[in-house]
Specification:
- By secondary structure, the chain is α+β, with helices and mostly antiparallel strands.
- A hairpin with a 1-residue loop joins β11 and β12.
- α2 crosses α3 and α2 runs parallel beside α4.
- Helix content is 24%, strand content 39%.
- It has a six-stranded mixed beta sheet, sandwiched between helices.
- Bound molecules: adenosine-5'-triphosphate.
- Adenosine-5'-triphosphate binds next to α1.
- Keywords: ATP-binding, Nucleotide-binding, Transport.
- It comes from Deinococcus rubellus.
Length: 350
Amino acid sequence: MAEIDFSNISKLYAGKPAVNTLNLQVASGELVCLLGPSGCGKTTSLRMLAGFLTPDAGDITLDGRSLLPLGPEARPTAMVFQRYTLWPHMNVFHNVAFGLKLRRVSKADVARRVGQALELVGLPGMEGRSPSQLSGGQQQRVALARALVLEPQVLLLDEPLSSLDAKLRVSLRGEIKAIVRELGITTVFVTHDQEEAMAVADRIAVMFGGELHQADAPGTLYARPATREVADFIGTMNFLPASATGTHLHAGPLAFELAGEPISGPLEVAIRPEDIYFAPSGIPAEVISESDLGHYREMQLRVAGLDAPLLTFVPRGEGSAAAVQVRRAVVYAGGQLVGEAVPVPRLVSR
Ligand SMILES: Nc1ncnc2c1ncn2[C@@H]1O[C@H](COP(=O)(O)OP(=O)(O)OP(=O)(O)O)[C@@H](O)[C@H]1O
């Protein structure tokens, strides 16, 4: 078991909260990504969990026991940092073995565990190499082996892939996911890259300005962003001002039925670009710009009755027409999600 609980955690710098009343649970064996723009408090949260920073309020527990009285070295956590932090004068073996030696593990066990850890990260037999003889990706694998060899209950990853090139990032993130799954190790992974978070996480915790806005599975986060900020940050979104009467919503010529409590007043309807499609029976629209992005086309549309253009993604091979329809939308009041909405077919006047 290794269940983490951030309970009402706050951290202030010069009286300003870097993390404000964070409540977040990470289940045993779960991989949770902390995601958000620069300065949102994700690194501060991770460092409090690791013991490098002390919270000003709240508690962090592991399996119900507070971690706060323990220094970093006494916590059952191991961290991998953004920059390869290998000791350049030590070979791979000694880099990975370092923590075990501090723990007075026997020589034979050190050799066995280092061998196993290197195998796990795909670098078997590399013990004798010096860090300068390794690529960036290999160095980060060694850093991962150095963390895993300690058999921590909790693995902490602080932007571990951000100094690698794009292709390598994609392959290594897949490997990290597979390794932590195999080991069943509770993992907290900090990233500002939403695609990375979507690809690796069981759940993503999205933070803005020190506040947690939503912690959900990637699919849920994408389909039902809890706040307008999450909706804007994750993927691409069209926002339209709308008004409501009960469960009937209007955004210019678009009419929706809200699946939720009746509501009144000003709202915003948010529509993913891929949920806008060409349909001859839809609302008149004109393509004002278009870019071919390979597997799909991105189009700006001027839709009759709407002030702002709508962005749509059109799969390769699909044609366009002079009218559009909407598949689904999500609705925000005061920046908070109030529900999903489905379009009401437009009555065609004859
Ligand atoms: N040592 C410090 N002294 C003062 N302010 C700090 C300190 N460390 C962080 N902050 C502030 O706390 C807030 C949260 O910082 P944090 O590093 O946790 O954000 P982050 O989401 O990890 O950002 P990034 O992706 O840029 O690392 C920021 O406003 C930052 O400026």
